[in-house]
């Protein structure tokens, strides 16, 4: 599971901090990502029980299968 701070996401996407925060709120409201607070820091990660999490697991399983197949 990959856990990220807003600052890390901002650096990787080259989006503004407000834009990243807005997108994270939309994804949280949709149940795609979850947030964990530690003091003043908010850590974001994919909700593996959401459809997106299930899709991620499926893709990883297919990848493993294909690696074993060849």
Task: Output the CATH homologous superfamily.
Answer: Winged helix-like DNA-binding domain superfamily/Winged helix DNA-binding domain
Q: Which structural class do the helices and strands define?
A: alpha+beta
Whole-angstrom Rg: 15 Å
Percent of residues in helices: 55-70%
Total strands: the figure is 2
Helix and strand succession?
HHEEH
The CATH architecture can be given as: Orthogonal Bundle
CATH-assigned fold name: Arc Repressor Mutant, subunit A
Question: Strand sequence of the main sheet, in spatial order?
Answer: 1-2
Distance between the termini: 27 Å
CATH class: Mainly Alpha
Determine the number of helices (DSSP H or I, runs of at least 4 residues). 3
Please indicate the percent range of residues in DSSP E strands (runs of 2 or more). 15-25%
| Rough outline | elongated
Q: How many domains make up the coordinates?
A: 1
What profile does the largest beta sheet have? Answer: 2 strands, antiparallel
Poorly predicted runs of 5 or more residues: none
Describe what this molecule looks like in 3D.
The chain is of the alpha+beta class and 70 residues long. It has helices at residues 6-13, 17-29, 51-69; strands at residues 33-38, 41-46. The mean pLDDT is 86.
Summarize the structure.
The protein has 70 residues and is α+β, with helices and mostly antiparallel strands.
Please render the helix and strand layout as text:
Blueprint: H1 6-13, H2 17-29, E1 33-38, E2 41-46, H3 51-69
Antiparallel strand pairs: 1-2
Pfam families: HTH_5
Keywords: DNA-binding, Transcription, Transcription regulation
Protein name: HTH arsR-type domain-containing protein
């Amino acid at each position: 599971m990959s856990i990220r701070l807003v600052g890390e996401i901002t650096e990787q996407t080259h989006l503004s901090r407000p834009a990243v925060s807005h997108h994270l709120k939309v994804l949280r409201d949709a149940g795609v990502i979850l947030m964990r607070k530690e003091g003043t820091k908010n850590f974001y990660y994919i909700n593996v029980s959401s459809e997106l999490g299930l899709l991620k697991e499926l893709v990883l399983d297919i990848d493993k299968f294909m690696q074993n197949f060849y």
